[in-house]
């Protein structure tokens, strides 16, 4: 087998909730109030004081091509990390309490050689986009593992990104910073646009490729019109409607003070301050991409030198 290695553009990403992966959505907007009565909901006067924020980062370090007399197969060498920050809102302090790093070679065919820090992970996929999507699933699994290790004492656990595959964690919500598609229609979208900082929409039930509760929340620092500063939040569909509404109230009370500032973060205010700090730390833990790429090339070269003439 011949193995070739190239550097990969680390900005390449695939969103698991993009329209290409979820062509239709069913919404029940009457979980909390009738559609005709939909209006912005104010945050309660008090909420959780001890939060857990969980996030992950991922980097594609190299593209690998495997080929022999029968065909060619793509592969990607990926590094990913996940960590957790505990936030004490009363004390105004936060600290990273858990972090972990993993790597893998995602490919449909075992290269039959040691790729050092990238153990082989079989993935039934024919193109690089699907391989990278598989690495996203692996990162989500690591985030869930990290969260499960430390989530017991948190009043609210905020997991950056969709909650899919992580719905069994207690008091957990998924936190989505950007909007690749609109789930609400007509006047209901107008309620999102009218939200003031700290207000949320009523809870609705959302079914795409998987079911969950959801709502929108506007953070301070980006005005009060349009979709600027709006995050979408998810909760597990196994919850009762009352429990989902209680989680929505908890996020409206606890998350707005954690919004980032525009002069410090281009993704402000949705990129919560603990998330931004955790991302920086996790990226450092991924290691030097140039050295890792060199190790992959060395593994490939060793395979060629060992091949029979």
Structural write-up:
This protein is an alpha+beta fold and 309 residues long. It has a single domain, classed as archaeoglobus fulgidus dsm 4304 fold (2-Layer Sandwich). It is 25% helix and 30% strand. The chain contains five helices and eleven strands. The protein has helices at 128-150, 187-194, 241-254, 273-285, 289-306; strands at residues 2-6, 26-28, 50-68, 71-88, 93-107, 120-122, 156-160, 172-176, 204-207, 211-218, 230-236. Strands 1, 2, 3, 4, 5, 6, 7, 8, 9, 10 and 11 form an eleven-stranded mixed sheet that branches. A hairpin with a 2-residue loop joins strand 3 (50-68) and strand 4. The relative contact order is 0.19. Mean pLDDT is 86; it is low at 8-22.
- The total of beta strands comes to 11
The ordered string of helix (H) and strand (E) elements is EEEEEEHEEHEEEHHH
Task: Identify the CATH architecture.
Answer: 2-Layer Sandwich
What share of residues is helical? 10-25%
Q: What number of structural domains do the residues give? A: 1
Low-confidence stretches: 8-22
What is the C-level CATH assignment? Alpha Beta
The CATH topology, please? archaeoglobus fulgidus dsm 4304 fold
Mean pLDDT: 86
Radius of gyration: 21 Å
- The termini sit apart by 12 Å
What is the count of helical runs? 5
Largest sheet: 11 strands, mixed
The rough form would be described as: elongated
Q: What fraction of residues sit in β-strands? A: 25-35%
Structural class of the secondary structure composition? alpha+beta
């Amino acid at each position: 087998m011949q193995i070739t290695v190239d550097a990969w553009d680390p900005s390449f990403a695939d969103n698991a909730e993009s329209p290409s992966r979820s062509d239709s959505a069913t919404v029940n907007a009457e979980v909390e109030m009738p559609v005709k009565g939909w209006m912005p909901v104010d945050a309660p006067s008090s909420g959780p004081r001890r939060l857990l924020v969980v996030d992950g980062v991922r980097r594609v370090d190299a593209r690998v091509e495997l080929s022999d007399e029968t065909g060619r197969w793509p592969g990607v060498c990926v590094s990913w990390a996940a960590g957790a920050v505990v936030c004490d809102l009363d004390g105004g302090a936060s600290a990273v309490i858990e972090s972990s790093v993993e790597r893998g070679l995602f490919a449909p065919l075992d290269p039959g050689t040691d790729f050092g820090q990238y153990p082989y992970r079989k993935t039934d996929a024919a193109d690089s986009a699907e391989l990278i999507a598989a690495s996203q699933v692996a990162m989500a699994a690591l985030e869930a593992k990290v969260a499960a290790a430390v989530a017991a004492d948190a009043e609210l656990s905020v997991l950056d990104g969709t909650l899919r595959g992580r719905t069994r964690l207690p008091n957990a919500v998924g936190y989505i910073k950007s909007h690749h598609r609109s789930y609400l229609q007509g006047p209901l979208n107008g309620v999102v646009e009218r939200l003031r900082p700290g207000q949320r929409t009523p809870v609705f039930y959302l079914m795409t490729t998987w079911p969950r509760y959801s709502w929108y929340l506007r953070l301070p620092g980006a005005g009060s019109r349009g979709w600027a500063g709006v995050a979408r939040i998810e909760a597990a569909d196994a919850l009762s409607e009352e429990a989902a509404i209680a989680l929505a109230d908890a996020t409206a009370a606890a998350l707005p003070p954690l919004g980032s500032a525009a002069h410090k973060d281009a993704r402000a205010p949705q990129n919560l301050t603990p998330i931004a700090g955790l991302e920086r730390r996790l990226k450092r833990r991924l290691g030097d991409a140039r050295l890792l790429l060199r190790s992959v090339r060395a593994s490939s070269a060793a395979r060629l030198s060992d091949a029979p003439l």
